[in-house]
Amino acid sequence: MKRILVAAVILGALSASAMAIELPAEIAKRGSIKVALVPNYPPMEFRDPAANTLSGFDIDLGEALGRKLGVKIEWTETSFAEFMPSISTGRVDAILSGFTDYASRHEIASFVDYLRSGPKFFVQQSRASEFKDMAALCGKKVGASRRTMFPAEIDKWSQKNCGSNPIQFVGTDGSADARTQLRQGRIDAAVQGNETLPYLMDIEPGAYAPVGDPFATQFTGIALPVKEKALQQGMVEALDALIADGTYRALLAKWKLNDNGIEKATINAGQ
């Protein structure tokens, strides 16, 4: 009888870890979700230089969601430019890669939002005294990834605050290139999501200084095909379960993202 009771407890625990969520038939049959990422945006996703393995908040979150859903996560490395085509053609089932939820993307993808973020200016620590406030950025060269919405947000802020002395925007090939140009003195300041800046300042102590507060509010989400309503609902339920059992908060703390957490999963859906 004791062995039966122990077996029942173990079976119950296993059942609780994989939730009874109805997934699309193809995913259920395959037993996995194909997830696209570009591992170059620490601490969201990157390759551990020592082990050459995928690491970061999104990796940990994705694996935890897979356990809740009872499926394996198949990570598929691609380019940023291929994110939306990969979703629209069915090459992947999801994008989980520090991907911002913009209304302009809703025609192709619906988003399950899981982080609150925003663009933030930063400069080299050695020049911090030149930039005591955000107004000091007017007329300066500011770099950010041209593949994001940061250029538009920078322009919007500049038009509102700089008048006849606008920021001179410099497009870069990603956030790493922006930091390289900043160190080389080719730009005066850079912009990066406030979900990544604390981590970078921690691993490169004394290198950077933030300027002001985030100048826009954005949400980072899991991009899913618009028509896959069951997968969208499954992701919401799995994320809410991770929030409820404390896993989500533990991951935020691990990757220094406590200020970016949400209280409940939401879907921003396309038509």
Which short descriptors sum up this protein?
271 residues; alpha/beta; Solute-binding_3/MltF_N; single chain; signal; 9 helices
Protein model, in words:
The protein is α/β, with parallel strands linked by helices. Helices cover 35% and strands 24% of the residues. It is built from 9 helices and 14 strands. A 5-stranded mixed beta sheet has the order 10-9-11-8-12, sandwiched between helices. A 3-stranded parallel beta sheet has the order 5-1-6. The chain has a 3-stranded antiparallel beta sheet with strand order 2-3-4, covered by helices on one side. The longest helix has 16 residues, at 2-17. The relative contact order is 0.19. Residues 1-16 have low confidence and may be disordered. Residues 1-20 form the signal peptide. This is ABC transporter substrate-binding protein. It comes from Bradyrhizobium sp. LLZ17. Residues 32-259 form the Solute-binding protein family 3/N-terminal domain.
What is the compact description of this entry?
The chain is an alpha/beta fold and 271 residues long. The protein has nine helices and 14 strands.
- Tally of individual helices: 9
Residues in helix, % = 25-40%
Rounded radius of gyration (Å):
21 Å
**In one word, what is the shape?**
elongated
Task: Describe the strand arrangement of the main beta sheet, using strand numbers.
Answer: 10-9-11-8-12
Order of helices and strands: HHEEEEHEHEEEEHEHEHEEHHE
Number of strands: 14
Low-pLDDT sequence parts: 1-16
Largest sheet: 5 strands, mixed
Q: Structural class per helix/strand content?
A: alpha/beta
From the N-terminal CA to the C-terminal CA, the straight-line distance is 55 Å
What is the residue-mean pLDDT, rounded to a whole number? Answer: 91
